[in-house]
Amino acid sequence: MARSVTPDPAIERPWSGSFGWNAWSNEWMPLPHIMCNLRMLNDGQWLKGHMGYIPEVEQYLYWHGVAAGFIYRDFRDVLVSQSYHVIAEDDTKFSHPDKDLYRAMGHEERLLACLCGVQQFSGLFDRWALYAPWLNVPWVFKAKYEDMIGRPAEVAREFLAYVWDRTAEGYPEIQKQVAIDDGYVEYVVENMQRKELSATFRKGGSGGWREEFTPKVKEEFKRRGGDWLIRLGYEEDDSW
Length: 240
Hints:
The chain is mainly alpha-helical. It has helices at 31-38, 55-63, 75-85, 99-103, 107-116, 124-131, 145-150, 152-167, 172-175, 182-192, 215-225, 228-231; strands at 69-72, 117-118, 121-122, 141-144. It is 43% helix and 5% strand. Helix 3 crosses helix 5 (107-116), helix 5 (107-116) runs parallel beside helix 11 and helix 8 (152-167) crosses helix 10 (182-192). The chain is globular and about 60 Å long.
């Protein structure tokens, strides 16, 4: 999320999430706490977060002129990423409960645990249901993670054009004057590729699930995932 088309690289990027003790839970933070964090967002500042959909939050962001980007990824790769995240050794970046529980599991069992949920962690699609409504918010910019890594400059330019449109919303004569400077595009692309800014970065690719899924995991994923892969354009049918 950002308010300005000219972000300042010197400004620290705050974090704001909407869930209590971990983004993999489904326990919402108290709304006043979420709003307090959002109020720290200044002009020209980026804010990152795992923000589930809350109508009051959406309205706050809209009326305060925030340019909000909703990034989603192939759920199969998300599942694989989480299965490694939950056993990561670095507790400064990957701090959450039940690590020993996951570390005692085999790889297939761990994938199924992340998919279906276990103890304090909700299942993958139970959590996705709390984010999915952002897809239906017309004023929010949506981007596939795979497009961001496959055609970063194009996505960056689309996002900056969107930010300009949000900034000048209500002034049609200004909106028509948009000309995105190549320097801004390069800045956004550079920051999209800064792996050290992501606490969860592992490989940063796509399609790695093919090497990780067992027939049992694939079957359970299809059972729980419904038609989401088709709806988001990752598959044409259920025959993958």
